[in-house]
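[job 4417] fold queue: 2 targets
>>> target A
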Amino acid sequence: IIPKQIEPLMKNILFFCTRYPGLGGIEKVTEYLANELSSGYNVSIFSASPLVDESLLQKLNSSVDYFYSRTSLKEDILHVLDEGRIDFFIYQDSYYNRENEVLAAIKNAKKKPVLIVVEHNTPDCYLISNKLSSCNLVLKRIKRLGIMVYTMYRHRKMYRMADKYVLLSKRFVPIFKKITFIRNPKKLMWINNPTTCDIPIEIDFKSKEKLCVFSGRLVPQKGIHLLLEIWNRVSKLHPDWKLKILGDGEKREWMEQYVVNNNLQNTVTFEGFQVNVEGYYKRASILTMTSIYEGWLLSLCESMQYGCIPMLFASYQAAYDIVDNGYNGILVDAFDIEKYVNQLDTLMTDSNKLRKMQIAAIDKASHFYIQNIGDKWRKLLNTFES
């Protein structure tokens, strides 16, 4: 691990990821932020896991350095910190379970960097996930108590070590305070995630089809059982509309069987995981998401910038940062299938409303362009300038 020769007048940033490069949301956000900030900083990325596919580095700016752990995580990070004279250490995965080694490296660095911890989920995600478990009620309550204690301990620990603790939404602040019992978290702030698709030059509305898309992992968290139940109803009202499911996961086989059992083969297709989703968003009119909980959900902003209207359950607070209900997207009361079907039916029926919302969605997506989010990160980093 040999850091490149750095520009002495520029500050040095090191992003830390559990795995990089990769195909997940954290990896995509890190890539876009690293590229954006590389114009004013010396930027590097450190991955706890080794490189798997070198082709995934192609979108990373050539000026951004990349390292990964080869032997000892602590010693490898420490070497990069010292050799690279790192000023800012941006901890991109607050849930990584080897934080003691990472924090020990920071503590032992010749020059202690500013530690910025970023939480890429709703702070109570473990508690919500427990509700989805299939164990009996007594065991679930016992597990919930344990999760509450663990969640409080871990958040307080990471907050204590951080110089700044970044959430994805202002609306997550009350949740953070509730689970940590920190009444006045002065080190807490929030910065939204950027869009992680290429910005389209123009949108050809004539290319829009009677097409809905779902984009995400096929896991219980995404509410895929609700998605199929909704589509089973709405497809009877609009048999000329199609649903394309982008993604893969543990529930794909179950979903495919559901489609067969309910004779939905003519309207539902499984596209698998897609590296480039832009082609689908250009053609699709509506993004149909049914998540139980999320941190940010990148697919909302991604689809909106292509004039694809997001429809989702109001099941997590950051959704209100992205979607203005009834104007540039639809927020349905959490898990009310009947309302979801009715709202989807209305959009599919009213082409004028559909077009107005598509235009509004494009405008709202611009708020989350990487240049705007990059400016917020620069403002944060500048607060530590001496």
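>>> target B
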Amino acid sequence: KTFSDSSLIERIKYDYLMQTLIVKFKNKTSKYAYFEIPEELANAFFESKSAGKFFHEFIKNKFTHHKQD
């Protein structure tokens, strides 16, 4: 999903099989993979009104992640 109205997040993608969330930030060239994200949480992220607020509240510093090139 693309977030055109977010100042922080450009787009997100979720791999249901691997429970991995891929986040592309607007101010970064790399993407970040967040692991062991429950499907319900990913679905809530897709439906959120504020992508940045949702990310800070429910994802950031709560899940293992790494940078992808």
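[job 4417] complete. Note on B: The beta strands are 9-15, 20-25, 31-34, 65-68.
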